[in-house]
Write a structure and sequence with these properties.
With about 450 residues, the protein is mainly alpha-helical. It has helices spanning about 1-15, 25-35, 45-75, 80-90, 95-110, 115-130, 135-150, 155-165, 170-195, 205-210, 225-245, 250-260, 260-275, 285-295, 300-320, 320-330, 335-350, 355-370, 375-385, 395-405, 410-440. The chain starts with a helix and ends with a helix.
Amino acid sequence: MLLVALLGVAIVVVAIIWLRLPAFVALTIGSLFVGAASGMPLAEVPRAFQQGVGDTLGFVAVVIGLGTVIGKLLAESGGALVVAESLTKALGRGRLDWAMMLSAFLVGLPVFFQVGFVLLAPVLFTLARQTGTPLLRLGIPMAAGLSVAHGLVPPHPGPLAAIERLGADTGRVMLYSICLGLPIAAIAGPVFGRYISTRVTVTPGAMAQQLSALKDAGRSRNLAITLATILLPVVLMLAAAIAQMAGPDGPARRAFEFLGNPVVAMLIAAVVSLYTFGAACGFDRHTVLQFAEASLPPIASVLLVVGAGGGFGRVLNAAGAGTAIATAMQGLHVAPLLLGWIVAALLRLAVGSATVACVTAAGIVAPLLTAMPHINRELMVIAIGSGSLIASHVNDGGFWLVKEYYNTTVAQTVATWTAMETIISVLGLAGVLLLAAFAG
């Protein structure tokens, strides 16, 4: 099964790089091969692929679509330029990569990776164009801040599910993950970004052209209103997370959970942006509608590729790649924290999804913690979360999202995004082992 999974990944890479097939076509071919070669009933293979595409796009398509509308209005109104100018004045051009990393980490604490990515993309592209800074020097720190928050810090679904399965303390996990996450994001973001941006050169593509502004539109000059609109979904999701963890069950908690659902929060922010970045900036309803409609066609290819990546991951999972890894790891005698990291890392490589890898790995190591109660459960959660981030590649929708937005080739995405994710994963393991020496 593991050999079949490896061959499936190889087929996708060869089809894209050598045969020059569109990425979503290559991913579809690779998915069908994996399903058929693994012995799945043939009728189930395309069904599993379709389910994976549907589950991925059921969330991602709405979030990216609404985020793109917000981003287009943010750029056209001059709001992205306002934020970019404020960051430049406050920190100077030499520290913009640190500003992007910190902003992304804070924004990423309560929101999903994809939500934070599409919200911050207009500011990223505008900063890069306005200052002449290489896109990757700012883009890698932004992606690192979001990825660390998504993979290590609750209330994101992977760490939260691992906390529940392992019986860990949420507060301690949050404390440890933030203390470890910030230095990890700094190394994988600004430090690695400065190194790799001098070796990999990319030309901003259609998404950057659409979501950035070169000159002041002369309309939106209120930084507070601009930031309030951008951060509105972040605040709603943060309120929902707090209500889930601390609030008693009841109408108020359910209302917060509804408003903090990523789709609902992004919809509210998009509607608000129609006024704050539209009517309040002097645009009439016809012009605002034109901006919103013009923002959607360029994301069609992005959605196809991201959806196909999710479908590929689903087929790998349905074919039994995760089960094969779990079976192979049984009886392996290594340090418990290292074992949790290894299991999560192998699952991530096989099925693509960090959340699936985190949840599955937690289920595999849970009996170990029952037999060895002295193991630090909070550090085990972070070890598993770190392993679940390693080496994002062609079976991960996030890989294709970053590739399409940053306009990189597959090889460039591997050299930048995949390498960055691996740095985060390895540093996470090192940090866990270091903390274990002091925290027990």
